[in-house]
Amino acid sequence: MAAAEKPLVLLAAGGTGGHLFPAEALAGALTRRGVTVDLATDARAARYAGHFPARKLHVLPADTVRGRSPLELGKTVLALGSGIVRGYRLMRALRPAAVVGFGGYPTVPPLLAAHLAGQTTLIHEANAVMGRANALLARRVTAIATGYPDIFKDRPELAAKAHHTGNPVRPAVIAAVAPYEPPAVGGRLNLLVFGGSQGARVMSEIVPPAIAHLVETLAPALRTRLSIVQQARPEDIDAVRAVYDRLGVQAELAPFFNDLPARMAGAHLVIARSGASTVAELGVIGRPSVLVPLPGAIDQDQLANATALADGGGAVLMPQSRFTPERLAELIALHAAEPGRLAAMAEAARHMGRADAAERLADLVVRIAKIDV
User: Fold this and answer.
1) 3-state secondary structure 112-149
2) pLDDT band at 65 (very low <50, low <70, confident <90, very high)
3) Alpha helices of the chain — where are they, by DSSP H?
4) Rounded CA gap, 330 and 73, in Å?
5) CA-CA distance, 124 to 236, in Å (whole number)?
6) How far apart are the C-alpha atoms of 204 and 195, rounded to whole Å?
7) Which 8-state DSSP code applies to residue 277?
8) Dihedral of CA 174/179/180/186: which sign?
């Protein structure tokens, strides 16, 4: 008699790290339990999913709502409709035990198709407020996993099927976890600066002049203590490097760091945007941060994420309207002079982190899908 086939769970995720990273973590947790994992996404995201730990990659048409014009809306509806039709055929062919979505419009076709096909469905909301794609799906899915508790406190119909699991983080983040050691008196002060594809420009515009104000005016003794690792867009790197070279400040610059979790673990202070994955990783690794939410977002998700970590004592929230060289320099000077503040923030961040979020989410998937593992 042939061995029984392993149960299959289909994950659906968009093309950003905020969606793919937690999906990757869940894929690993399910695979360790003997569950087969496939990934469904759109053509754009598929280019970034080459190393995703899945048996197969399924590409379905999808599109983001880009404007209110009839032409733009028509294109979006056509793409999503085509994706749902093809997704329904995929569901009938695969018959997965469950379909799990991680937000972003590429998750809409497979999740709606799974709903129409009668499959068990689950979405994971990583942010402290629900994104538009997940909001569209929330009433139709079997269960909702959340990165933050009580995000549906005013919506009892969704709270009834919500489960707080935390935000799964990549294996590289778990591997980077190490105790926080505050900067020694007179010792090196390591700063890590990054902003992601949408946020690196403001970091290049604000952080270098902040460091100039810091070492030329507020705390000249920090000039030889500072060690900066900064993400910068290729078109900004030369200008950023010129400032640090002029100041005589040690700095390593790159458009992207493959080992960002390890860099985070080596930092005394992180200056970053506040996407869900970034905030989750800061919590699991336990590092103090200055968070600058991306302004102008319809859902204000990054503001909600940063507020949650700041209210818990693990970060300083600095809206972009107040993110000036002078304010940032003052904040760095204050924490450099009182490293106990950094240690307290690190501990508060670590206390809020959930290193077991991937396992908790896997438990939920296995339970609602009635998978025998």
Assistant:
1) HHHHHCCCCEEEEECCCCCCHHHHHHHHHCCEEEECCC
2) low
3) 17-32, 43-46, 70-94, 108-116, 132-137, 156-159, 171-176, 196-213, 234-247, 260-265, 276-285, 301-311, 325-337, 339-352, 357-369
4) 46
5) 35
6) 9
7) H
8) negative
Indicate the DSSP class of residue 222: G
Nearest-angstrom CA–CA distance, 200 and 187: 28
What are the φ/ψ torsions at residue 169 (nearest 5 degrees)?
-120, 155
3-state secondary structure of 190: strand
Residue-range domains of the chain with CATH: 8-168+355-369 (3.40.50.2000), 175-352 (3.40.50.2000)
* Sheet of strand 57-59, all strands in order from the earlier edge strand to the far edge: 57-59, 36-41, 8-12, 98-101, 121-125, 143-146, 162-164
Quickly count: other Cβ atoms within 10 Å of residue 91's Cβ. 21
Can you tell me the distance from the alpha carbon of 102 to that of 91, in angstroms, rounded to the nearest whole number?
A: 18
Tokens linked to 29: 């947790």
Question: Residue 267: which of 285, 283, 247, 253 has the closest Cα?
Answer: 285
- The pLDDT value recorded for residue 1 is 33
Q: Any bridge partners for residue 361, and if so which?
A: none
CA distance to 45, 55, 188, 203, 271, per residue, from 246 (Å): 40, 51, 19, 18, 22
- pLDDT tens digits, 73-116: 666 667 677 878 898 999 999 999 999 999 988 899 999 999 99
Q: What pLDDT, in 10s, does the model give residues 246-288?
A: 999 999 999 989 999 999 999 999 999 999 999 999 999 999 9
Quote the tokens at residue 319.
């809206």
What span, in angstroms and rounded, lies between the C-alpha atoms of 133 and 131? 6
> What angle is formed at CA 101 by the lines to CA 301 and CA 156, rounded to 5 degrees?
65
